[in-house]
Amino acid sequence: METGEAGDGLAGLLLKSGHAPADLAERAMFLLLIGELERYEELDLDGTLLAKALTAASPGVRKRLAAAAAAAGRAEWLQAMEYAKPLEAFNTDDWTTTVQVLRRAGDRQALLQWAMKAPPLHSRSLLQAMAAGTPPEEQDEPVVAALLAFSQSLPAAKVDELQPDRCTRTLEGHSNYVYSVALSADGRCLASASGDKTIRLWDPASGACTRTLEGHSNRVYSVALSADGRCLASASGDKTIRLWDPASGACTSILKGHSNSVYSVAWSADGRCLASGSSDKTIRLWDPASGACTGTLKGHSETVWSVAWSADGRCLASGSSDKTIRLWDPASGACTGTLNGHSETVWSVAWSADGRCLASGSSDKTIRLWDPASGACTGTLNGHSETVWSVAWSADGRCLASGSSDKTIRLWDPASGACTLKAHSSVRSVAWSADGRCLASGSWDNTIRLWRNDVAELLLTPLASVDGTYWQLLAAYQQDQSQQPEWVRAWLDFITALGAVIRRFDVGVDEASVQLDSSPFEIEIDG
Predict the structure, then answer these.
(1) Which among 25, 61, 56 is positioned nearest to 40, based on CA atoms?
(2) What is the DSSP letter of 401?
(3) CB 420 within 8 Å of CB 410
(4) Nearest Cα to Cα of residue 225 among 171, 179, 267, 288
(5) What is the pLDDT of residues 425-484, one digit of tens each?
(6) CB 262 within 8 Å of CB 236
(7) Closest to 187 in 3D by CA, of 509, 493, 456
(8) How far is CA 127 from CA 77, 80, 122, 138, in A?
C-alpha cells in the first residue's frame, strides 16, 4: 500500500493468492488502491472503514489514496476526508482532489453543494465542472444558472501575488524573548520557544495557547515540528534536545551529547533524522526513534547557530559565528563545501523547496543567496539596518522572509526587491505555513505575531466555515476596490454572488452575514 500501483505485478499476485489485510479498514483501503472497486463497495457500504483507514494512514498512502479516488470518482473519499479533518484544514492538494473526484463522479447536485462550502478559489472549478460536464436541469433556479455563467468569465486568480500584509493576531503568554517559531504542515499548530524555558503550542485560528511544555532548565532557543506533525523537537541552553508529543504534551525523549548550549534543531523531510547545532562548534545527527547520536559533524571554528536540511535530505547546511556556511553530506559526514562572503556572524540558513537556492542572514545586515551546486553567491539583498536573525522561504520559493533587529520583517522577491512589514520589536524568528498563507514571527517583546493577506483569506477560506466576520471583511473591500487589481475586483464580485446563492438556500447564513453591495451578478438576476 505504500509503494504499489493498481495493475502491477505485486497487486496481481496478491489478488491471485486471495490475500487481503485482516484489518477491515486496511482491507477497504487496499481494495480501493488496487482498483477492486466492486469488492470495495461490498465491504464498505457507507465509507466508514475508509474514513478510519485514512485517519491512520501515512502521508504517502493518503496521497496515493487521493489519486485513486480522483481517478475512480469515488465520493467516499470526501466523506472519509471530512471525518479525518475539518474543511478548514484541507490543503490545496485536498481541494484539487475534491474537484477531480466530483468532476469524475458527475453528480450535479454534489458539485453544487460542494461549491457552496469550498473556498471560492475552488468553488469556481466545481461550478465550471457542473456547467461543462453535466446536462443542465430544467429546475435550476435562475440564480444558479447565472452563477454558472459567472464562473466561466472570471479571470485567473493570481493568489501567489498576495503576500502577507497585515498582522491579524498577536499571541501573548511568554514572559521572556521568543527565540523561535514553527508551524505544522497542516497549519493547525504553531510552536514557540522562549527564554522563559518553555515551549508553547498555539491554535493559529483562535490565537489560544493550547499547551505549555515544561522541562528544559535553561532558555529554549529552537523548535521544529516533524513533517507529519507528530513530533516536536526543542533545543536549549541546558545542552539537551527534547522530543515531545504535541498531542499529549509529553516529553518522549531527551537527547544528550552536546557539551554546550544547543541553538538549532531541524528535521529531515522524512522525519528519520534530526540535526542540531551547538556552541560546542559541532552539528550532531540523531535517530529520533532510538535517541542515539548517529553522527557528529566537525569543521566550524565557532558556534553553530543554524542548521537546515535540503528537501531531498541529501545535504545539510549550517551557519556559524565563524562567518561561513558549510554544506554537509549527512550519509558520510563529509563537508562538501564552505560558502564565504558574509563579514559577520551567520545566524540563519534556509533552503528553497527545489534545493537550488540557499539563503543566509547575518550580523552584517544582509541576506545572501547561494547556488549550493557551485558554492557561488548569486545575490545580496540589502535593506535591513541591523542584524538579520532569521530567513525563511515560502513553499513555492517565490518569496523570502527575513526578520531583523531593526524591528521589521521584509518580504523579498529575490529577483527584484522587497516589501517591508512593520513588526513588534527585534524580530528573532520567522516561519511560513506550508500553504504560504500565513507568516509567523517571534520577537524580543515576548510575543508572536501572525501575518496574512485579507484577499487571500477571502479566496481560500472554505465557505462552510465562515462567520459574520468573513462577510464584514468582504463588505469592507467592496466599499473601496479602487486600489485592487482588476482580477481581484472580479473575484470579490464572484464571492458576493456565491453569498447570494448560499443565502437563498441556507436561511441561517442571513443571520450571520452583513448587507453586501450589489454586484453585476445581482443586477443581472434581479433586473
Answers:
(1) 25
(2) E
(3) yes
(4) 267
(5) 899 999 999 888 899 999 999 999 999 999 999 999 999 989 888 999 999 888 877 778
(6) yes
(7) 456
(8) 20, 23, 9, 17
- CA 393/CA 370 separation, integer angstroms: 13
Cell numbers for 447, please give them: 510575543
Phi, psi of 357 (to 5 degrees): -145, 135
Give helix 120-133 / helix 92-105 axis angle, nearest 10°: 20
Which residue ranges make up each domain of the chain?
Answer: 1-85, 106-161+454-527, 163-452
Q: Which residues contact 21 (CB under 8 A, 6 or more apart)?
A: 27, 30
How many residues in the chain?
527
One-letter amino acid identity for 123? S
Please give the Cα distance from 455 to 64 (Å, whole number).
Answer: 32
Amino acid residing at 182:
A
The 8-class DSSP code of residue 517 comes to P
Report d(CA 101, CA 20) in Å as an integer. 25
Interacting residues of 512 by C-beta distance below 8 A, sequence separation 6+: 467, 468, 471
Residues 6 or more apart whose Cβ sits within 8 Å of residue 290: none
- Cβ of 53: how many Cβ atoms within 10 Å? 26
Is the distance from CB of 342 to CB of 305 less than 8 angstroms? Answer: no
Kindly report, residue by residue over 328-370, the tens digit of the pLDDT: 999 999 999 999 999 999 999 999 999 999 999 999 999 999 9
HSE-CB of 273 using CA atoms within 13 angstroms: 22
Q: What is the largest CA-CA distance in the chain?
A: 77
304 within 8 A of 317, measured Cβ to Cβ: no
Spatial distance between the Cα atoms of 299 and 318, rounded to a whole number of angstroms:
10
Q: Is 397 left (phi over 0), alpha (psi -120 to 50) or beta?
A: left
- Superfamily of 163-452 according to CATH: YVTN repeat-like/Quinoprotein amine dehydrogenase (2.130.10.10)
C-alpha cell at 63: 496521497
From first CA to last CA, the distance across the chain in angstroms is 56
The C-alpha cell 437563498 sits at: 504
Instruction: Choose from 136-145, 226-235, 464-473, 513-522 the range with maximum mean pLDDT.
Output: 226-235
Instruction: Specify whether the CB–CB gap between 405 and 424 falls below 8 A.
Output: no
Distance CA 14, CA 53 (A): 20
Amino acid type, 365: K
If you search the block for the grid coordinates 472519509, which residue do you land on? Answer: 80
